[in-house]
Amino acid sequence: MGKPYSLDLRERVIGFVKQGGSRRGAAERFAVSPSCAIKLVERWERTGLATPGKRGGSVGKLAPYREFLLACVKEKQDITMPELAAELKAQTGIDVAPASLSRFLIRNGFRLKKRP
């Protein structure tokens, strides 16, 4: 996924349009796509901001069960991901892959290694 354009470039595009230039003209002059210039100026007119908007933001389907999952792991620290998936399905009816549970736990600070 690409990075947002710099604030300096965004301000120059907006400044060009504020001085009477067209959005497509600004796109050509500053080597951005016409779509980018159009959306940038629309955002600036709507919000008054030239900064990029928020990116991402998916919470995932496991977020509502965070407390339940963390309690299960704290109760039984050596629980395997398939066991945790079965426990979640039994309690809530949600079917989830063990790999998804592993990624969820890592995002929530669990970096446990199995010890012999």
Helical percent range? Answer: 55-70%
Estimated radius of gyration: 24 Å
Approximate shape: rod-shaped
Main beta sheet: none
Q: In percent terms, what proportion of residues is strand? A: under 5%
- SSE pattern: HHHHHH
What does this structure look like?
The protein has helices at 7-18, 23-30, 34-47, 66-75, 81-92, 98-107. It is an all-alpha fold. It folds into two domains: 7-47; 63-107. Helix 1 (7-18) crosses helix 2, helix 1 (7-18) crosses helix 3 and helix 5 (81-92) crosses helix 6. It is rod-shaped.
Feature tags:
116 residues, 2 domains, 6 helices, 57% helix
Write the layout of secondary structure elements.
Blueprint: H1 7-18, H2 23-30, H3 34-47, H4 66-75, H5 81-92, H6 98-107
Helix pairs in contact: 1-2, 1-3, 2-3, 5-6
Give a quick rundown of the structure.
This protein folds into 2 domains: 7-47; 63-107. 57% of the residues lie in helices and 0% in strands. The chain has helices at 7-18, 23-30, 34-47, 66-75, 81-92, 98-107.
